[in-house]
Amino acid sequence: MPEHDAQDLSALQKSLAALDRRMQHIATEMERTHIAEYVDLLNRPISLIWRNLLSGVARGVGIAIGFTFFAATILYVLQILGALNLPIIGDYIADIVRIVQIQLEGKGY
């Protein structure tokens, strides 16, 4: 009988040691993923709204700047192609550049 108790105790200790190692691993992973900061942020909705508002404004400004740069580059390339006086393409490019310039001046066409 005492051998069974010793074996049961040894098995229980091994099981608890394995459980302890697993819990330590889970705790380490949770710390690594900063889940505590995320839960804290979710408990403060004003802070969450403020961060989302700032990120939305930054994203919008970035898109506006990027699109402006892209459009200016395209117009620059089109003006260069229009100056080459290519037979068919030149007329289309000139029309596009003219329409864009009219829109930028705020006039209707």
Which terms would index this structure?
109 residues; mainly alpha; 4 helices; transmembrane; transmembrane helix; membrane; DUF5665
Structural description of this entry:
The chain crosses the membrane at residues 57-78. InterPro entries: DUF5665 (IPR043723). It holds the Pfam family DUF5665. Keywords: Membrane, Transmembrane, Transmembrane helix. By secondary structure, this protein is an all-alpha fold. The protein has one domain (2-106). 87% of the residues lie in helices and 0% in strands. The chain has four helices and no strands.
Q: How many separate domains make up the residues?
A: 1
Order of helices and strands: HHHH
Rg over C-alpha atoms, rounded to the nearest angstrom: 33 Å
The low-pLDDT segments are: none
Please work out how many helical segments DSSP would assign.
4
Q: Give me the secondary-structure category.
A: mainly alpha
Tally of strands: 0
End-to-end C-alpha gap:
102 Å
**Main sheet makeup:** none
Write the layout of secondary structure elements.
Layout: H1 2-32, H2 35-42, H3 45-83, H4 89-105
Pfam family, one: DUF5665
Transmembrane segments: 57-78
Keywords: Membrane, Transmembrane, Transmembrane helix
Concise summary:
With 109 residues, the chain is mostly helical.
